Structure formats: structure tokens, C-alpha cells
Predict the 3D structure of the following.
Amino acid sequence: MNDKLDKLKTWTHQLDDVMHEIVREAAICDVKLLDPGVIEAVLQNNDSVCGHQNPKAFKKLRNMLMLGFIMRGKAYEKLGAIEADELIAAIREKLRKRMDHKLGGESRSI
């Protein structure tokens, strides 16, 4: 049981760091990540979704999004689907509250 708790703490910290950086870079570029189709546009390297042009921040946002999706997949493998979904939802909600709706509409997945 202690091993599972340690894994959960490690994943919480790592996912929280990545998601925090995604939100930070999105704020710099004024990207409404939670609006429909925006995450896909960023992943396709389409910077037309930026309210402010900042190529360096946009590149980092794109890279962090890709890393986030990779980490989500690994969390499913290591923690299981239910635990990973709960963990990701909790982090997402914390970030949503912190950003006060600056990320756009309803969340699909960050």
C-alpha cells in the first residue's frame, strides 16, 4: 500500500508540474485551451489560436501538451484508469480555479 501511495505522490507532482507549465504558456500566448478545437490546433502547430504572438512560448506550449499526453498514457499504465482519471481531474480543477476562466470554455482534456 505504501508503494502505491508513493507512486501516486510522484505522479501527482509530475503531472501537476506539466499541467502548470501548460497553463503558464497558454496564458503568455493568450490561448483559450479549453475552447473546442484549440488543443488540436496547438498540437498541429497552428498559432492562429494565439491572442498574443510569442513563438518561443507557443513552441513550449505545444511541447508541454505533447508531453502531457504522453504522461497521461503512462499514468494509465502505472496507476490504472480510475486512479489516473481522478488524479488528472483534480489537478485540472485546481488549475481551472487558479486561472479564473482565462483558458476558455469547458474542459475536454489537458
Summary: The chain has a mean pLDDT of 83. The chain has one domain: 2-99. Helices lie at 2-29, 38-43, 55-79, 81-99. DSSP finds four helices and no strands in the chain.
